[in-house]
Each structure stands twice: as structure tokens, then as C-alpha cells.
Amino acid sequence: MERGGKPAVDAAGDDRSTTVSSLVADDAKDRYYRDLYTTAPDFKDLARLDPDFAAITKGRDIDFNNPASVMQLTKTLLRLDFNLSIDLPDNRLCPPVPNRHNYILWLKDLLDTSTYDQPRRGVVGLDIGTGSSCIYPLLGCAQRPWSFIATDIDPQNLEWSRKNVALNNFQHRIKVVARRPEDSLLPLDDLNLNSIDFCMTNPPFTRSKIEMIVQGGEAGFVDRILEESLVLRERVQWYTAMFGFLASAIRLVDKLRALGVDNYAVTEFIQGTKTRRWAVAWSFQTMRPVQDAARGVKTALSKNILPAVTEADVVRLSLPEGIGKMAEDLSSAVSKLELISWQWDKEKLEGIGRAPGIVWNRAWRRRRKREQEGTTDKMADDPTVFGFKIRIHVARDGLRIGCRWLEGHDAAAFESFQGFLKTAAQSAHRSG
Ligand code: SAH
User: Can you give the pTM of this predicted structure?
Assistant: First the structure.
């Protein structure tokens, strides 16, 4: 799909069927959205496609110092790329579309990869401080069948946000909620919501280093979210926040680590050559996101704040004579473990399993056996479920056995599982 040849907007809500063709269409849509701003927009193109944009740029380059031009650029991109209309007051922040879109793309990855349900349905999100544009909920609803609660404390912002929701006919999917400064930031109890899938925020902040570390700065605002998250815990799967300063992101990760919150994600949003933002997500639930979403920071400066890896190649092997036979042997070696579940897909050469602990570990099995024979005290109930995915990647020059950590809090379990898998793959390879 190209700009202007936009995908149909999904106003249908959650009731899409999971036919193969709808999955293919979803894939194409997701690819379209992911690639949108990988290169900078071509302003000549925009002028050709949108008369309003042409009228303001008059054949010249866009003037970023002119608020009217900047606002038109935002409106034009929303219209051409997302089929969204917005209206904004002159005295409020005009959100740059590519940066806001980056946050939504990251949320999609986080949510899609931290669930066993494919595709994931009925997602509900909370946008804390939605502004006058309501831009995050609009961008989210334009590309996925999500629903949102959008909060703000500013009466004018609330009024404009409601207008923008109505302008796009999203009243049944986006609920704009007025809050007071002294209210909680996550109004689950006030709204009678047992749980939601994520919260997001582009926190209010002032561009001063001092503001950053005091109450009212972005770090202070997100600290409040962190405190509320320690009470709400699993009721929100992903708590997320964007930052204008790397120092705020580092500070939050330090706090998470000190609190023992191991399931978190860090990313950076880079737009153009100078604008950079950071975002952090954390979860008290057990599902782990893909590595690209969890460790989305490329700059060396901030690499030491990244969470544990969730993906690894355990071994490379030459092509065996019968890949089918080898795959079957590998699957059967895994299925001999004492698993909660194991499903192997012969076509895709991949399988998903859940283990009630480190079941491949000899000491663990001996203990379990003695326990069953009644010769030892019962093991303390071990809630450490370990979920994993195994995949045989086939290339012309050989095989690669990849492994992904899907569920659990024990990074050491993922490491030792890789050892088990390597041995199992090598032995299946010999017999294959
Ligand atoms: N999400 C929009 C606006 C971000 S600006 C965007 O990305 O463009 C931050 C917003 O948070 C402002 O609209 C401000 O009014 C709002 N805000 C400040 N304190 C708040 C609070 N306690 N609860 C909800 N919103 C708040």
C-alpha cells in the first residue's frame, strides 16, 4: 500500500473473524504502518495529494518555525496515512505524527508478542494526558480494533479531544475521562475496570533539567504511575511511559530493578537526525515480549539498562538428510519432558511449550521422583512456569535452532534450557 492508497479503517471493533484472508490482510496493514516513516515524508508528494498542504507551503519547503505549517503537516499526515481528521486549538501542543506513531508501533509489538493468543483481541488501553488531539487513541484505533480510555485534567483539552473522537466516529471505542490533579493517574477503580492491557503516557514536562527531577517533571509524573502500579500489579499488563530525557528512563529502570521487577522493556524513538525519545514498559505478569521490543535501544550509552535477552540461537547444524525425521526426533525429546503443554507445528517447524519449572534439570527431576515416591518432603509449590518457543530455521547451507523465552521470571531457566535444547538438537541431528 502507498501513501494515499490507505488501508480501510476498521470501525468494526472486535468482531473480525480469524479467516486466513483476514490474517493476510492484517499482515499487509501492519507492514504498511510499520514502514510509514522509515523515510522522511516527501513534501512535494504531500502537496500533490492534499490541497490544504499545497495551499500552506505554496511550492516551497515547509517552514517548521511557522505553527500554522506544522499544524497543517500533522493534519495532512493523519489524513493521508491514517484516514483520520483532527481539529486543534492554536494555543496547544501540536503533536508530530511520526513520533506519536512510533509509540503505537512499539505497543503493538509488546502486546502481540506477550500473549499465547494469536491474533490478540479486545485490547483496552489507557492514555494518561491525552491532550487536545487525543492522538494516541486515534492512532491506535485507526490501525487495530483497540479501545481506549483517554484522560486529561485540562477542560479545554478534554473538550477538543471529545470533538476529535466524534470527528472520527470513535465514540464507542474511545472514552474521554476528566480527572483532577489530585486524582489517581490510573482510574481503574473509579471506572469499575478490573483489568486493562496497557497504559501509556507522554507525560507533561518542561524542557529544563531541574524540572526533570522535581515533582511536576516527567520523572515525577511517571513515579506516580510506578507507585500506583505497585498496588494495581497484574491488573494492567503493560505500564508504559515515554521520556524526553534518557536520564529519566535510566532512573526508572534503576527503580524497577531495585524493586525486583524483571519483566520490562526499553526502547528509543528516533525521528530524523535530532529528535530522540525513550520509552520504558514494565509488567508484573509473566509473558515476555520479543527482544526487539524489550531491547530496542541501539546506542551503547544506554545498553546497560536493558532487560534480559529473550531470544537465542542455540546451535547451527549441517542440513540432515531428512529434516522431517530430525524435527520429529527433536519434538519427541521435548515432549518427553514433564510439560504442562507442548505443541509442535510440522509445517512451520516450530513448537510452543510450557513447563512447570526447570523440568530438563536432572536434580529437579530426581527431586520430583523422590517426592512422588514419598521419600522426601513435598517440594514447595513452585509457581515458576517457564514458557518457550523452539524453531528450526532452514537455510541452504544448514540449520539454525532458535529459541525464544515466552513466559516466566527466571532468566537462568532460559539459559539452562538452551543447554538442554542444544544437546537434544545435536542428538536428533545425528539420528536424522
Ligand atoms: N498525549 C498528548 C499530550 C501530551 S502533553 C500528546 O502526546 O501530544 C501532557 C498532557 O497531560 C497535557 O494535556 C496535560 O493537561 C495532561 N495532564 C497533566 N496532568 C495530568 C493528570 N494528573 N492526569 C491526566 N492528564 C494530565
Answer: 0.91
